[in-house]
UniProtKB/TrEMBL annotation:
SUPFAM superfamilies reported for this sequence: Metallo-hydrolase/oxidoreductase (SSF56281)
Protein name: Cyclic-AMP phosphodiesterase
GO molecular function: 3',5'-cyclic-AMP phosphodiesterase activity; 3',5'-cyclic-GMP phosphodiesterase activity
Coiled coil segments of this chain: none
Pfam families: PDEase_II
GO term, biological process aspect, one: negative regulation of glucose mediated signaling pathway
UniProt keyword list: cAMP, Hydrolase
Entry-linked InterPro entries: Pdiesterase2, RibonucZ/Hydroxyglut_hydro
Protein's organism: Vecturithrix granuli
Family the UniProt entry places it in: Belongs to the cyclic nucleotide phosphodiesterase class-II family.
Amino acid sequence: MKRQNMLSQMCWVVFVLFLMAGWGQTTYSEESAKFVSIPLGVTGGLREDNISSYLLAPKGSTDFIALDAGTLFAGLRQARILESFEEIELPPDSELMLEGVMMQQYIKAYLISHAHIDHVAGLVLNSPDDGKKDILGIASTIDNIRDHLFNWKVWPNFGDEGEGFQLKKYHYVRLTPGETVPINGTSMKVTPFLLSHSNYTSSAFLIEADGAYMLYFGDTGPDEVEKSDYMQQVWTYVAPLVRHQQLKGIFLEVSYPDERADNQLFGHLTPKWMLKELSVLANLVDSQHPETALRGLKVVVTHIKPSFVRDLPVDEKVLKQLYELNTLNVHFIIPEQGERLEF
Ligand SMILES: [Zn+2]
Ligand SMILES: [Zn+2]
């Protein structure tokens, strides 16, 4: 009996120590989640069934937006198999499968970071079966989608501008950098920022819902390589949100492992550059203690490019390199297609 008491006491001590360890570890995890994200496509190429697209909704809401739309259907299918849509209830008499209901009813808008094919392929291919909604992006992105995709040459014109007869399924919304606007059909707002992606303009989106924020980057090179200050501008804008723990997560790309030479980046990041860019943010958040300024911040690592080479999988290599350099104690997440994330 006595021995049992001691055992149970020891269990309590271990339990309390465990709690305390968890408490000190991050400034973020103990809060209740504000956002849900379901990645529909996570790689930066090669996998035509799994390229850049992330669903996002305020937690508890069924109003999703798609951040980029490289892969839609294959990702929704995987999410259904993994039972990731906790908040969606399919009526038992529904003629549509969950994928169709998501496309036609619950995905309220597309936010496209740039018009490269790996960010819009799913949008084009699914458009005949899609529901009516807005496509939001900076002017150059919208113009490229209008002029080079939905133009009756590459694909029918499902837009409400441009070449020939307009099917008007999609309404184009041009976003002005730095200007915050509501996203139709949702309670979310977006503030866009320009990004330098080699000789191409890409963009980032800051999403707000009820005082909480998520930051999504399209493809981007590091400022130092791109001879730009676009990343710096984004970091400056969000630094106060990090300081007040309102920024719940960042989606940022790492396309290649560190072996890649700087002159071969083509407007992308490597683990080394990801950490350099995050340390710019850390210094803006707390110049006295940059080393602890981002502790526990969730960073979803997007756009890793798979390769044909029979080697260690590139995503494992990238994650290993990120953690070797992770003096900021950021919480890196390598997303899986269809697997629910909360922030
Ligand atoms: Zn790109
Ligand atoms: Zn891309």
